[in-house]
Amino acid sequence: MKVRFAWLTLLVLLGACSSIEPWVQPYERDRLADPIMSFDRDPVSAGYLQKVYDIREGARGATGGSGGGCGCN
């Protein structure tokens, strides 16, 4: 009896995980792209500071910054 209950529970849980529809619907994605959802209070200032950091370090890539250490891009 316990084995049947365990199998039934496992099948129910696996069935619940296999949804065909995406969790976020296309019409809900604009809410996720809202500026209030960003981690920075001021995204323009954060972008500027990241650019300065990339120039000072002479590195690029991992944070998505473009250009080299000279600051020309």
Sequence-ordered SSE layout with sheet pairings:
Blueprint: H1 2-17, H2 29-32, H3 43-57
What would you say this structure looks like, in words?
- This protein has 3 helices and no strands.
- It is mainly alpha-helical.
- It has a domain at about 40-65.
- The succession of helices and strands, N to C, reads HHH
Report the sheet with the most strands, covering strand number, pairing sense and barrel closure. Answer: none
Q: Mean pLDDT score, rounded?
A: 74
Task: State which percent range the strand residues make up.
Answer: under 5%
- The dominant shape is elongated
Task: Please give the radius of gyration in angstroms.
Answer: 23 Å
The proportion of residues forming helix, as a percent range, comes to 40-55%
Q: How many beta strands in the DSSP annotation?
A: 0
In angstroms, what separates the terminal alpha carbons?
69 Å
Query: Helix- and strand-based class?
Result: mainly alpha
Q: Given the structure, what is the number of helices?
A: 3
Low-confidence stretches: none
